[in-house]
Amino acid sequence: MESFRYQLNEDIGQAISQKAQKLFQHFSQKDSECFKKNSDSVDKYLKCMTNLIEGSENAEKEIQYQVGGIIYEMQNCQKKSEDDKNKLRQCADNVKQQAEAQLDKITNKFINQYK
Fold first, then answer.
1. Contact 95, 73 (CB under 8 A)
2. CB 111 within 8 A of CB 26
């Protein structure tokens, strides 16, 4: 049962990682654009980069907050399942779907904010 729980946590962790990676790839792309658009002015480049850094830090905080909620929900799943793999899988799948939806919202919010 312990290895089953571990695998469920791994599955959710990978889903979180994929969503976060998409967002931070966007910020990396914007970093390159900041340089290209503002290579003639150090001040403009620094302002653009400062804006991106603040955005990525805010995104990271929101993702960390969501991860905390996911961990809490997974602990609740484990308590509710009482060693029933089917109950645990169903609960974990629900948590994963909710987590992916929330992380999609965060990703879209910051991608739209930092176009």
1. yes
2. yes
DSSP string for residues in 5-60: HHHHHHHHHHHHHHHHHHHHHHHHHHHHHHHHHHTT-HHHHHHHHHHHHHHHHHHH
Helix/strand/coil for 83:
coil
Average pLDDT over residues 59-82: 87
Nearest partner of 94 among 15, 1, 4, 18, judged by Cα: 15
* 32-53 pLDDT per residue, tens: 889 899 889 999 999 999 998 9
First to last CA, the chain: 45
Closest listed residue to residue 19, CA positions, set 90, 91, 105? 105
- Composition of the chain by helix, strand, coil, percent to 5: 90, 0, 10
